[in-house]
Write a structure and sequence with these properties.
CATH topology: phage-related protein like fold
Oligomer: single chain
Structural class: alpha+beta
Number of helices: 8
CATH architecture: Alpha-Beta Complex
Largest sheet: 6 strands, mixed
Radius of gyration: 24 Å
Strand order of the largest sheet: 7-18-13-8-10-9
Order of helices and strands: HHEEEEHHEEEHHEHHEEEEEEEEEE
Strand content: 25-35%
Number of domains: 1
CATH class: Alpha Beta
Number of strands: 18
Shape: globular
């Protein structure tokens, strides 16, 4: 009997099912990118903006060890008058650093029985691959938002009498809920726009570059801003980016407004790594023992992240020997001892506060 020309169409580079593995990885990564607002829009590879200084997540891949030291150069001192003939010995400047540590391996995994795969009338592996990506993305993006909020809550820092940085910026309204602070009326919209203007003023006073300022709001605030006709009136704003019928708010008080997110922290988080813990409720109090404060400042409804000069950014990110643009490792393969297909996606990354002066929040606090 003659042999047929059975093409091993999934083979690549000597690996019989290499293309299948690549397709699985691609499905996981596609779902990951679909859910990570910070990573995609203004992420660590800087692809989210045309501005070289718009990067708001500084990244580093660590080939050994589990942390990385990011240098922070202090603010400029004043120049001085010089009397000719007097030797110039150099003025004081200070440098500090923030250390970002890699977290333990974060993994999402499934074990699917062979017999169920055989009997199923639909493909279960492809949806599960996407679920792996979505789960990792949601967890990771929430942590980035927590760090961004904590950056805004970080106070100023000095070293040897010189200012290293002026700290983050916060705009607060005292009410018990966001709905009372910014009601879904024209008055509520005016309140929020005024708060955004105050936040922009704080960035101006801290000499944060105007280019590359981003504002991320929650879905409720987008509804509120829909009540302010002035931001959609071309006669007043000349901003074609804002479209009330499409619910698009592109620009507000100098900030590029990104898609609304549900990942702004709004609960008390007292589990997991300490650096991601805190109380982010309107009536909250600090969670003790957490780095960069334990929250207690109120519930954030908007996070501003700004492009920083000299390579700094509000959020620092470290990956353990992985591609910084695609930080996920995936695996799919049969487990013959259990008659199952094992699927997993995992990350070994960490985030932390880096340049607080490039972060700001608008929040409601009951006290």
């Amino acid at each position: 009997m003659a042999s047929s020309n059975a093409q091993r169409f999934l083979a690549k580079g000597g690996v019989d099912d290499e293309l299948a593995l690549e397709m699985f990885y691609g499905l996981v990564l596609e779902a990951f990118h679909a859910k990570t607002l910070l990573w995609n829009a203004i992420g660590p590879d800087g692809t989210g903006s045309d501005s070289a200084n718009s990067e708001v997540v500084s990244s580093q891949v660590v080939s050994s060890g589990k942390s990385w030291q990011f240098p922070i150069i202090g603010e400029d001192g004043d120049p001085e008058y010089h009397q000719p003939g007097t030797e110039l010995l150099g003025q004081q400047f200070e440098v500090d650093e923030n250390t970002i540590t890699i977290d333990d391996i974060l993994v999402k995994h499934y074990d699917v029985p062979f017999d169920q795969i055989q009997k199923s009338h639909f493909d279960i592996l492809r949806p599960l691959a996407r679920k792996l990506g979505r789960s990792l993305a949601t967890d990771f993006d929430k942590k980035l938002f927590i760090i961004g909020v904590k950056a805004a809550q970080t106070g100023s820092e000095t070293k040897n009498g010189m200012t290293i940085h002026s700290g983050g910026s916060m705009i607060e309204r005292v009410e018990t809920t966001r709905e009372l602070a910014w009601p879904a009326t024209s008055a509520g919209a005016t309140n929020f726009r005024d708060d955004a203007a105050k936040l922009a003023q704080l960035f101006d006073e801290d000499n944060v570059p105007e280019e590359g300022r981003f504002l991320i709001i929650d879905p409720y605030i987008r509804r509120v801003l829909g009540k302010d006709n002035t931001i959609f009136d071309s006669d007043l704003t000349a901003q074609r980016q804002n479209d009330i019928n499409q619910r698009i708010i592109g620009v507000l008080e100098g900030f590029s407004v990104l898609s609304p997110t549900n990942h702004l922290p709004s609960t008390r988080i007292a589990t997991g790594p300490a650096k991601y813990q805190g109380d982010f409720t309107a009536a909250g109090s600090e969670v003790s023992g957490t780095p960069n404060g334990g929250g207690g400042e109120g519930q954030p409804v908007a996070l501003a992240l700004c492009g920083a000069d000299e390579g700094s950014a509000a959020i620092g990110y470290v990956a353990g020997a992985m591609d910084k643009v695609n930080p996920i490792y995936t695996f799919i393969g049969p487990d013959e001892r259990r008659n199952t297909n094992f699927l997993k996606g995992q990350m070994m990354v960490g985030a932390g506060v880096l340049a607080p002066w490039c972060a700001g929040t608008i929040h409601v606090d009951s006290a």
